[in-house]
């Protein structure tokens, strides 16, 4: 069944398009500006056309059986009703000539038939004009639509967020029966399957009868805001529209037409829709909560910064996952502590300098008053602020590989969802401090990723050789459980006590090193896994202050591999230990890795080992 959809660039039409695409049906979108249609499926076509130009509609209906009419002209000024009639008449005639079997239309709901506003009267006339074409019409009449981006909801959001005290006309107490945008789309989508019976009209709404003022009060309660609504009987809808233009100028033109319709009661009189459709509309609080969550990202205040570092993603992420606790915040620690003291003074939890594990995180961990609410090893960590704030705050770090994993980009993003005027004032008040702290924090993260605690903190040891085998085969061998046993030094002074997860990210191995009763444990965690190319491990517990070992296999042609072990290490005991023992340690490392490379080479060739 071929479907034609108008209004695909609009609020309801755009969501309906996604629902039809998700259902796997082919749809053709008619749009004045085809490039603005956000199609996501190959089964979606877009054709140019304008309902005010009947000639442009002829080709659009070819093969169409069902057409959605989701067009209005409220943004066109005072003559929108005349334009609505003309557009509906053109569309209906073109649909009739093409043999369309059904038109589905979304109109407005009102039970004050004799005194409709111009907006609601135009919505009703549009339905009549479409029916006059002779094509069966399924018309839905909806009250206030609640959803992020809907005009009704955005006016509520703007007024409640910006005005602690609102002077309201009597019409804010007019009764309505709001419906969630998800339920509206569900009804429109389900209308494709309703048996045709010469056309039908359905009144659709949510389960609660409330006023526009009730909606504003409910929104304020859900957002944790205190708002006072003062009714003033002399504020006419016309004056209200002018007042709306001052408070919410972005919605003023269409909003005035909508406000003029608020004097009309919009409550369902027929519940036939509940009998015909298997849809249970959601309660108002649930609809508002969904809309608030969906709208939050649009209205958030955001500070985002990026840095490129010359290390793989796992190295770049290492200082991020260790942030906070005894490690501190790398930059401006005194400012962070001052913020914690202010929070405790205000009755909050402060920043106590504690975290469960100094090296690793899981979702739900608390780090200095922040809660880890998203964690992807070596890729992403998002912290939710637990301090007292006039809104909700997040600090997020993302690491993405560049140049095949040789380099990385660190993206640091602070997001704040302000509550009311105080929330916005808070954001702009702390913006200068954020500029200093977040810039310094990102700079230190980049330095730590590339150099460790300070530029000379870690030494580097590299051992390379050429192995006459494909890189993929060499890598697969390292993934086998017995590979570690073959690569360990000869003798019984190193043994595996525990192993899980292999060489993939998160895998762990515990070694016991020494002889007899004189043994110590060395625990390492795997990270930086790139299939067929490299994996890394770092010390979690052991003798070194820093130990990071990267195993890299780079294909040279189709039958040779550059096999590299790269170790970054730092000994405990500081500079003195480094000067006394670094030479001995490097000789031991050279001997150990020569033995490892000979073992690997023996597995794949009988020719002499070639060092790179």
| Strand runs, count | 27
Oligomer: single chain
Number of distinct helices: 16
CATH topology of the largest domain: Rossmann fold
pLDDT < 50 stretches: none
- Per CATH, the architecture of the largest domain is 3-Layer(aba) Sandwich
Specify the overall morphology.
elongated
Rg (C-alpha, Å): 33 Å
Would you kindly provide a written description of the structure presented here, covering whatever features stand out?
The two termini are 65 Å apart. It contains 16 helices and 27 strands. α6 crosses α10. It has 612 residues and is of the alpha/beta class. The chain has three domains: 296 residues, Rossmann fold (3-Layer(aba) Sandwich), CATH 3.40.50.720; 152 residues, 2-Layer Sandwich (Alpha-D-Glucose-1,6-Bisphosphate, Chain A, domain 4); 153 residues, Alpha-D-Glucose-1,6-Bisphosphate, Chain A, domain 4. The strands form six sheets. The protein has an eight-stranded antiparallel β-sheet. The chain is elongated and about 95 Å long.
Name the features.
612 residues; alpha/beta; Rossmann fold; Alpha-D-Glucose-1,6-Bisphosphate, Chain A, domain 4; eight-stranded antiparallel β-sheet; seven-stranded parallel β-sheet; 27 strands; 36% helix; elongated
Provide a compact summary of the structure.
By secondary structure, this protein is an alpha/beta fold. The protein has 16 helices and 27 strands.
């Amino acid at each position: 069944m071929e479907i034609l959809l108008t209004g695909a660039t609009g609020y309801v039409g755009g969501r309906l398009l996604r629902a039809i695409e998700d259902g796997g049906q082919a749809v053709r979108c008619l749009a004045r500006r085809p490039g603005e249609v956000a199609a996501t499926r190959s089964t979606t076509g877009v054709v140019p056309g304008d309902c005010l130009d009947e000639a442009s509609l002829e080709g659009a209906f070819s093969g169409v059986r069902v057409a959605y009419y989701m067009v209005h002209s409220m943004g066109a000024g005072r003559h929108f009703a005349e334009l609505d009639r003309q557009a509906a008449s053109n569309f209906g005639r073109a649909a009739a000539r093409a043999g369309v079997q059904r038109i589905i239309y979304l109109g407005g709901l009102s039970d004050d038939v004799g005194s409709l506003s111009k907006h609601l009267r135009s919505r009703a006339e549009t339905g009549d004009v479409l029916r006059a074409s002779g094509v069966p019409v399924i018309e839905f009449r909806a009250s206030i639509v609640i959803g992020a981006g809907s005009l009704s909801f955005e006016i509520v959001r703007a007024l409640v967020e910006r005005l602690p005290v609102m002077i309201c006309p009597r019409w804010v107490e007019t009764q309505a029966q709001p419906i969630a945008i998800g339920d509206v789309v569900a009804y429109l989508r389900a209308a494709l399957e309703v048996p045709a019976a010469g056309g039908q009209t359905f009144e659709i709404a949510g389960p609660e009868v409330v006023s526009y003022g009730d909606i504003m009060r409910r929104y304020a309660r859900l957002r944790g805001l205190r708002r006072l609504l003062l009714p003033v009987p002399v504020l006419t809808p016309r004056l209200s529209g002018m007042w709306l233009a001052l408070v919410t100028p972005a919605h003023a033109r269409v909003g005035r037409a909508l406000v003029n319709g608020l004097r009309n009661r919009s409550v369902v009189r027929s519940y036939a829709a509940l009998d015909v459709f298997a849809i249970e509309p959601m309660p108002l609080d649930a609809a508002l909560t969904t809309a608030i969550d969906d709208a939050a990202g649009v209205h958030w205040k955001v500070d985002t910064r990026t840095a490129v570092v010359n290390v793989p993603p796992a190295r770049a992420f290492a200082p991020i996952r260790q942030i906070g606790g005894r490690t501190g915040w790398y930059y401006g620690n005194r400012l962070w502590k001052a913020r914690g003291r202010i929070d405790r003074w205000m009755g909050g939890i402060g920043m106590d300098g504690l975290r469960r594990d100094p090296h690793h995180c899981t979702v739900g961990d608390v780090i200095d008053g922040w809660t880890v609410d998203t964690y992807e090893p070596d890729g992403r960590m998002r912290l939710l602020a637990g301090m007292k704030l006039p809104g909700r705050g997040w600090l997020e770090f993302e690491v993405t590989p560049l140049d095949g994993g040789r380099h990385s980009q660190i993206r640091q993003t602070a997001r704040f969802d302000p509550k009311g005027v105080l929330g916005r004032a808070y954001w702009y008040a702390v913006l200068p401090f954020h500029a200093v702290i977040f810039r310094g924090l990102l700079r230190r993260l980049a330095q730590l990723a590339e150099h460790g605690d300070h530029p000379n903190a870690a030494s580097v040891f590299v051992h390379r050789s050429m192995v006459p085998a494909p890189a993929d085969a060499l890598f697969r061998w390292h993934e086998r459980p017995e590979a570690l046993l073959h690569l360990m030094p000869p003798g019984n002074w190193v043994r595996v006590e525990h192993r899980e997860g292999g060489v993939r990210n998160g895998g762990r191995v515990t070694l016991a090193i020494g002889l007899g009763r004189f043994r110590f444990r060395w625990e390492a965690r795997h990270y930086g896994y790139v299939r067929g190319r490299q994996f890394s491990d770092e010390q979690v517990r052991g003798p070194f202050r820093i130990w990071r070992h990267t195993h890299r296999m780079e294909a040279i042609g189709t039958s040779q591999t550059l096999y590299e072990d790269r170790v970054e290490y730092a000994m405990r005991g500081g500079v003195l230990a480094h000067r006394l023992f670094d030479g001995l340690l490097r000789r031991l490392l050279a001997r150990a890795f020569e033995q490892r490379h000979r073992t690997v080479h023996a597995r794949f060739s009988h020719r002499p080992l070639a060092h790179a």
